[in-house]
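Human: My hope is that you can spare some time for a protein that puzzles me. I am handing you a single protein, as its sequence and its fold in token form. Could you go through the record with me and say what the backbone is doing? Take your time, and here it is.
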Amino acid sequence: MRVLLVAGLTVFAGGCVVGPNYVRPVVVAPDAYKEQEDWKIALPQDDALRGPWWERFGDPALNALEARVGAANLNLVVAEATYRQARALVRQARSAYFPTATLGVGYTRSRQSENLGSLPGTTSIGSGSGTRTGSSGSNFFQLPLDIAWEPDFWGKVRRSVESGQASAQASAGDLETARLSFSAELAQDYFQLRTLDAQKQLLDATVAAFEQSLTLTRTRHSAGVASQVDVAQAEAQLKSAQAQDLDVGVLRAQLEHAIALLVGQPPANFSLPASPLATAPPSIPIGVPSELLQRRPDVAAAERRVAAANAQIGVAIAAFYPTITLSASAGFESSGIATWLTWPSRFFAVGPGISQTLFDGGLRRAQTDAARAAYDASVATYRQTVLGAFQGVEDNLAALHILQDEARVQDEAVAAARQSVTLTTSQYRAGTVSYLNVITTQTIALGNEITAVQILGRRMTAAVLLVEALGGGWRDTALPSARDVTQRTAPGEHPPASDQR
């Protein structure tokens, strides 16, 4: 037994690992972002986001909400459990490195049919197996210890472990991607809600102004200066503004409910006081495109899936080689319980086994081809993920750049519209223009001011999306190592909740 074990370990230590060794696929990154023209280039010491990215927006209420996403978001709980499951699968694959030992206790009582008679070549009492037979029945007591081991001569287990480790690392990347996605979604919903607060503030002020205009028109009508048509137009304008003011509440309530879900709260127990959006988006450090490959958790996860698919090719190739098994069995067996655990009742059996599949109808070849195809697909997915990452940065750089120019022009339009309202109202008071002119200028001014507020909200959303496209300050150095995903509890991690119950 010891000789066979030592021999197996020696061969195992020098065994080969079939299948291709992993090489990271080549991805071509541009030298600079196309939409980075006229964008402020970050200084070397500030070339990446650090710490909680949402703190750059300087909103304490947003900071408090973001802190609750990681602790209470149930979708993140699902992603974290999936990551723990992937780590458990690594340990499951790694268990094939070691022998399997089985200890059992058995008792059997049997009786042979008297109508069969004595079978040729058998004795009724004292057979070599230790079994006592006869018309009255027989007893058989057994205490076996079975050991079986399949040495990893061709690296099948090693490739399986390698694939499992890469898959677990990809799952860790998925977890960080989900964390970033939910944080960004919360920030977007938050700034859209604050945009609606600003829009409602504007409509409240507009309703108040239209009420004053209606009062003025009624006064002029009482004095015989204005017609009943002017009064009707003023009332219609006021009611229209009031309807817009009320309509804002629908979308605001829905956004508040969405935020409650992201922080793991029932909508009925969650509310946010109104606070109009007033600040412009902060500057976001961009860096160079080549850094994006190390800053996006989804890119890291896609690359790790390529490594996992590459290892699966080795697993498929290993099936072409013989299967060698070392097995041993020992224990005690007897026909009587009194002599069961005595030295003469001992037995053992030791022997290696080797088997080779000679014909399988093309099964192994098909499995290898499927593994290679899966690898090619994972490489294409990885490269597509990288391209999508570059697109996300370019899209939001363009959005911020264009919206900044649009906001400047829109502010000029708002200022002009306000001046037009002031002049037209003065002319109406003087009786030189009809009330229709006042309504027209006020409607234009309201539309311009609402557009200005919406542009500010779009700028904040684009800033959040740019942060998300840049990875939110994550680095691939935060990805757990192969050793970390092999351990049951990673360094600094608490045991699963199921172990604490």
Remarks:
- The radius of gyration is 38 Å.
- The domain at 17-97+154-321+362-496 is CATH 1.20.1600.10 (Outer membrane efflux proteins (OEP)).
